Amino acid sequence: MSAKYPDTFYSRGPSTTNKIALTFDDGPDGLYTSQILDVLKAHKVPSTFFLIGSKVETHAREVQRIVAEGHVIANHTWSHPDLRKIDSAQLAAEFEQTEKALEKVTGLKTALMRPPYGGINDGVIENLRDLNYKVINWSADSMDWRDRNVDSILINTLPDVRNGGILLFHSGPGDSAATVAALPELIETLKMQGYEFVTVDKLLNLKPYR
């Protein structure tokens, strides 16, 4: 997909850079989002949060903290549908509703999005391109939604990290305690390997907001 839609679809940054990006899907929530932010702050690591619109108003304080602490917010739809299974009008509504919620809470209009489940096809990408979104997938998947223990998260992630990598984690729903617990070791290991953490927009040289 990156070759077919080079200006719209991204799953990694340039292999010539030691920069990588941590990303977190499915927040905000009232527990794990703030714990993840605490870890990122302690380790001075910027990240990108792909947020679900229906949760934004309830957890506005967490969303505002994400922005205030130098992280980037992006659109992860209103209700987390598989975009391949809804029509173009429903797809547009998912993103427009979320964009309005995020703008109300932060004053920012997002330009980056991630499809739930990584679910894409040509029609989805073309619809998102028409909405002026950049589609951000990933190159290393922690599988932390399935394997809720520290060792598995590290084993799933670390071997797949390469220059320009985009790493996928979750800040909910459900129990993300293992993700929080795994992050310090993961961050320090990757720093020792010479990687530099940046937000997705900086990795890909994109504008995060409109």
Automatic annotation (TrEMBL):
Residues 18-198 form the NodB homology domain. CDD domains: CE4_NodB_like_6s_7s (cd10917). PANTHER family: GLYCOSYL TRANSFERASE-RELATED (PTHR10587). It holds the Pfam family Polysacc_deac_1. This is NodB homology domain-containing protein. Gene3D superfamilies: Glycoside hydrolase/deacetylase. GO terms for molecular function: hydrolase activity, acting on carbon-nitrogen (but not peptide) bonds. It comes from the Bacteria. One of its GO terms (biological process) is carbohydrate metabolic process.
